[in-house]
Amino acid sequence: PGNPQPRMFRLSNDKAVINRYGFNSHGHEAVKIRLRDRLRRYLFHEMKLHPVTAASMIASSPDGASLSDALGINRSLREGRLLGINLGKNKWSDPESADDYVKGIKTLGSYADVLIINVSSPNTPGLRGLQRKGVFEKLLKKVVDARDELSGPRPVLLVKIAPDLSDEELDDIADAAVYSNVDGVIIANTSTSRPLSLKSGSHLTGEAGGLSGPPIKNLSLRALRKIYKRTDGKITLIGCGGIDNAEDALEYAKAGATLVQLYTSFGYDGVGKAREIKDGLVKLLKDKSWSDVIGDEGN
């Protein structure tokens, strides 16, 4: 059920959000049913198969993804797009256990192009403790092993970390990520900090939860730069946190991000934000490509 409502607060003067959702979800089986039904609708409406034929094909497949792979259909069911599934942890689980993640990988991994292991939400008690060096290394080994045991094409495996970590903690995470053969790191999740620069009133900024949006950009960039330098560009890094325009996105690329993600800016500016940022990047990059500027903060 997640945390009691209200649990999301807009800081409009900062184009920011504080949330404490607490991983509200109907659970693995409900999501699996939705994904299988999504594939059934695709076979019926897009491939124009007879409903009985589509249902029979789904029923004969141990999971929907093996069927889509066999048919040569992208798991997102949209050409040029990826389907990502975020895996969290129940608040009543053993704080240091990887079991929830492993179960999520086994249940849903074959439906995804990308799996995201979230160890950094501030709204699940003890969750961020999974980022401690020894615990984090064990977690990554277990989730990578679980992913590698999946049949068919294996989804990309990413781990999402907090922006509030110390330099030593970031070094530990970078080393563990490279050693474990995880595919990438998302930097970063929401922050527990409340920067002095916030313009919104204390009745909002005092709410518990994770802060997202422009006020945490510098925190995320700091963590990104640290991990990029530590890994020497050997692992894919996804920048996230306060990206509101093309200039922000380009700053993340120069700090070492191969990809960037948007969340809060969608809430304020709508889904056209991605198109706006890409158009802006074309003008900023001029005769260069995105890949030319990754990690190139000197220019």
TrEMBL record:
Keywords: Flavoprotein, FMN, Membrane, Oxidoreductase, Pyrimidine biosynthesis. Transmembrane segments: none annotated. Its cofactor is FMN. Residues 1-285 form the Dihydroorotate dehydrogenase catalytic domain. It is an enzyme of class 1 (oxidoreductase). It catalyses: (S)-dihydroorotate + a quinone = orotate + a quinol. Pfam families: DHO_dh. InterPro entries: Aldolase_TIM, DHO_dehydrogenase, Dihydroorotate_DH_1_2, Dihydroorotate_DH_2, Dihydroorotate_DH_cat, Dihydroorotate_DH_CS. Pathway: Pyrimidine metabolism; UMP biosynthesis via de novo pathway; orotate from (S)-dihydroorotate (quinone route): step 1/1. The keyword Signal does not apply. SUPFAM superfamilies: FMN-linked oxidoreductases (SSF51395). It is found in: Membrane. Its EC number is 1.3.5.2. One of its GO terms (biological process) is UMP biosynthetic process. GO terms for molecular function: dihydroorotate dehydrogenase (quinone) activity. One of its GO terms (cellular component) is mitochondrial inner membrane. Catalyzes the conversion of dihydroorotate to orotate with quinone as electron acceptor. Belongs to the dihydroorotate dehydrogenase family. Type 2 subfamily. NCBIfam families: pyrD_sub2. This is Dihydroorotate dehydrogenase (quinone), mitochondrial.
